[in-house]
Structures are given as C-alpha cells and as structure tokens.
Amino acid sequence: MTAATTFFLVVGVIALIAGIALMTVAIRGGVNDRPRNHMMLIAGMMSAAFGLILGGFAIGYATTAPLDFNTSEPDIQGA
Questions:
Q1: Which of 2, 8, 30, 70 could lock 58 by a disulfide, CB 3.0 to 4.6 Å apart?
Q2: How much is the pTM?
Q3: Distances 40 to 20, 31, 34, 53, 69 between C-alpha atoms, Å
Q4: Domain residues of the chain, as ranges?
C-alpha cells in the first residue's frame, strides 16, 4: 500500500469510529428528548458511512490490479 492509500484507510477508520461513538452518545441521550440528539444521530450515521466507504475503497484500490483496456483486441460479433 502506498502512503496515500494508508492515509485514506486511517482517515476512514477514524471517521467510522467517531461516527459509531457519536451515534452511541445520541442513542444513550434519548433520541426523543432533544433535537440535538437527532442531529448527533444523523451526523454519526453519515460519518460512519463515509468512513466505511472511504476505507473500503482504499482497501479495494490497494489490493486489485489496474484494468488496461488498451491492450486487447476488440471483440466484434459477426466479423
């Protein structure tokens, strides 16, 4: 893995953990009590989803070979 993919993976994991922690705090505080808890719950979900997607794409980019569409012959049907 390069430094960039490691950076994106670390940022993704941090965002995921922060989002889960924020959701936990919002749920323990009672979602129906204050609008602040609603905001924290939504922000935690968005942060957790962002971290999961960022980390997943960093792992996928680091572990797969690049596709090269310029080296193969075109597959023409009927020719």
A1: 8
A2: 0.76
A3: 11, 9, 10, 20, 45
A4: 3-62
